[in-house]
Amino acid sequence: MYWNPVLETLPREKLAELQLRKFRRIFSWAYEHSKFYRELYKEAGIEPGDIKTFEDIRRVPKVEKAMMRSLQRKDPYPYGDMLCVPLEEVTEYHQTSGTTGQPVYQPDTWQDWEWLAECWAYILYAHGFRKHDRVFIPFGYNVFIAFWAGHYAAEKIGCEVVPGGVLNTEARILKMQEVRATALMATPTYLLRLAEVARDKLGIDPARDLSITKIATGAEPGGSIPATKRRIEELWGAKLYEHCGATEIGSWNYECLAQSGLHVNEAFFLVEIEDLETGELITEPGKMGKMVITAFDRLAQPCIRFDSKDVIQWSPEEGCECGRTFRKIEGGIFGRADDITKVKGVLFAPTSVEEVVRSIPELGNEYEIIVSRKGEVDDITLQVELLPESQARRKAVEEELNRQLRVKTNLRFNLEFCKYGTLPRYEVKSKRFKDLREDAR
Amino acid sequence: MSEEYPLERMAKLISDIQKAASELRELCGGIQAVERNAERILASVRMLELNISDALDIAGGGR
Q: pTM surpassing 0.95?
């Protein structure tokens, strides 16, 4: 049931005590070992002995990705002054994907790497991964952290791991079939792509012809978007479980078998949610805000009050039928604070469109949203693909799309129906939202 | 739930392993096959500490 019942069912007041203690420890570590952190904290007038309560934690300066970028490519090369260990103790190099700018480098010691795998062991065990599973990982093992730690965690749990690294999509499907893999890890986008290629090019129905019963997903919002989750579970005939993580943070939450929100691993992380406009702390459920996160035990390049810009909200559900006491977030990550933008004066989250597109069975998995400006007026276009067998229903689909988009976004879209198979396909993270307005950022 | 587990005894054994692996790393005279493997043991021991020893006095638990 639990990877670690001691921590996962710890009463909440004891959990808070543990978090405060662990925050003090990582704060002191960074203060003593990193020139960058020491200067940042000295400037703010905070020393390790000052952290006595959660209110004190709120006074600790936040760190942003842009700060990390400005520190890097300097000595100790290439990590700069944020590094807390001698360079020769770094055993792992990864980097962010760079979708929001210059990639950030992430150094880890072997102990950090064990910790990353430990975080993932909590995730996979909660998803139901066990020793008897044969886990297929269709991931291009490279500088991006993605499913690396998932691989090590599956080994730690005792699963048999089949690395699908350099194989192409078709070969990966055939390998899964050949070895009768029972579990899988991939992004929502790639799970849809795998199923599409299996069906269209190989005549394989993943739900009928493969043996996958459980799937770990992450890196994109899709796993918490009901229509996308439903579509993937039906295509694969398997349960889909989500988690969230990031290169600079680690993997900090997970869905349990109850599939009713994502438990924050509060023994390893402190998650704060801040109001998008005022920056005030949000503790009540159902109110979206920006996540500020601390990883308690990652040492080479600590993540302390990192302003992730991910928009999340607390779940209204107190407790969980699984018995874990870790608080849950609802709806996963809604998007980045940077991506939530005003279109025609209306606050627009691109992820709201995915729920609409994926709920209409006549549409393919792919879509693109393009925002531009015509004169003084914003213009928003949605490109979708009608499945070949659904061409006769185009008018009805168009009406349904218009109706749902209006309800979900309060916006009127231009709709473009593209030929099936012509929109871009993605293998890891997708980039389906394009804001072409000059002053978009 | 912590009461069901002998946390104190587990933490004592984790501490013993930690001391033994540290000692091994120090006395190996630079034999890389010992030093590096001891280092890896210590990283795993740290995970045991995070899971058990760190929470010992907070979680309570049996002896």
A: no
